[in-house]
Amino acid sequence: MAEALVCYRCGNQYPAVRQRCDCGEPLWYSTSPIESSLSLDGVSRSMWAYAPWLPVDRPVRGIAADVGGTPLHRLGAASGGLTMYLKNEGLHPTGSFKDRGSAVGVTAVADRGTGAIATVSHGNMAMSTAACAAGTPLDCYVFVPSDIPTERIEQIGQFGATIVRVEGPYGELYERSLELESDHNVTFVNSDSPLRTAGQKTTGMEIASEFATRPGLPSASDAIVLPVSSGGHASATWKGLCELRDAGLIERIPRLYLVQAAACAPIARAYDRSEPTVTAFSPDEVGETIAYSIANADPPSGTRALTAARKTEGAVLAVNDEEIRDAKTRLAREFGISVESSCATTLAAVDRLTETGELGTDEHVVLVGTGSGFKELTAGSGGSTAPTDVSIDDIASVFDDHERS
Ligand SMILES: *Cc1c(COP(=O)(O)O)cnc(C)c1O
Ligand SMILES: [Zn+2]
After folding, report:
1. Is pLDDT at 228 greater than 60 in this prediction?
2. Residues with CB under 6 A from ligand 1
3. What is the pTM of this model?
């Protein structure tokens, strides 16, 4: 059971609930599981197989009890000849990996017996937090920007949380939210809060475990490719892999390649310029992108994610909307997988990395499909085929070309 919080950068430890180190970087739980409780379970049906590494035990009821254990699809050869896999996080109860962190967050706050849970999000994290809190005694508050589309409100609202529309600069809300916690007995489980990253590290643990234990796969993947926004998931994935290595359960850590949308790519820019820390994109530098789930101009865990890419000898890339649309279409048509545009960035990145030779033809590479495409029915997100119109008396004509071929 993990208790203390630690800073990845300066190593400072903090005994109790807290989100940030004095140095300003995000904290995460330091884990010291009992050696004898550790093993790799590659076919586990939930993330709670890794409970010894988590700050909470598996809850007894609700969807949080069954989060994780998503399939790793073997896609086969990509254009460059390497072998691709997709970790299908879109199959979660609310359609994204956010359920991993929400499950831990909601369980931890509910275990304390009092208080409320809250999050600053207008997308997958909002929906996920609300769904995991449903049916618990916790009040759940979701803070969204005032210009949120109505469909999004309906998607979040179906789970019964209090939705708070905030007037004013939404980008500041993350920092402001942390100031509210102690005075109001509320826990914010934001994109990179320690509870959320504790849950999200299980993505990396499941991938590594599956390679280590599934017959017919190499014992480890060579690389993992993730879309990145706040940097919470990517840094958590790195941490999960480090913990397995430190426990002697895996030998090496795959290279982590992190991908952003070119219109909003502060982490990729810092990587390209070999800067030690990530600087925010200013409002006039940010462009429009179909990958709205990963458009974060000022990522709170950006520097930690940058560190993860560097330490694992991966990289941070930015891809444009045309590449994203094309990749999304290919994932659907070649493999039958519907992903959110934000995750299609991973296939676009593999194309780039194959062209430059950074990924070799003999390598095994995992794309993390962080969210389902089924929620994303916006015009122009790519991939749909125009229907053929016929009258009922002419339906046979549809097969004319088929018969001739
Ligand atoms: C939140 C989200 C991301 C980015 O995760 P971060 O932890 O914020 O970097 C990527 N893809 C999808 C589908 C998401 O919902
Ligand atoms: Zn620190």
Report:
1. yes
2. 96, 98, 123-125, 191, 227-234, 293-294, 340, 342-343, 370-371
3. 0.94
